[in-house]
Amino acid sequence: MTTSATPTAVGSAAGPAGEDGPARRARRRRLLPAVAVLGLGGVLGGAALAQDEVPSTPLGAVAPVSGGLARINGVLPVGETVPGTGNRAAEDGTHRVRVLLELTALEPGGIGFRADDWTVERLGGGESPVLQASVAETSVRQGDVLLTELVFEVPDRALELTLEGAGDARLSLGSDHHRGGGPR
Length: 184
Hints:
Elements: H1 22-50, E1 63-65, E2 68-77, E3 94-105, E4 111-114, E5 119-122, E6 127-129, E7 132-133, E8 137-140, E9 145-155, E10 161-164, E11 170-172
Antiparallel strand pairs: 1-2, 2-3, 3-9, 4-8, 5-6, 5-10, 7-9, 10-11
């Protein structure tokens, strides 16, 4: 007796063309949440890996810089115009701040200071260069202290502003300088 066997697809849960079987539907129901969780984990993991920057030093605290220490003694709004910049009014949605920066040289080589090396970085990207500085460039000898004022134009509603200088200096500006109710 001979019987002929018809070949069938092994492992296929699909029935007639275009119809899924119950095993395939159950597998899909388990797979979709797993893929969503893996995708979310990838996004959060990528964001965590992108955070390679050192946290900023809180306003008023001392931070190490090459050759010594740095501290912000204050962040003050300067109004709508800045002397020495042609009395140009601040752009809509921004305001100007005066950052009172103190540098103390502790190392024998001192601290080399250039105002243009300092910028204000904001959360999510973007930076503001120095508009005006009371000291443009100098060398601070060991044991000496430099007090300088740096003027920046920053967004009115920025969540986190950080003064970044030469090397890895990162000093938080806080939020007390923000104007209430948006631009004036």
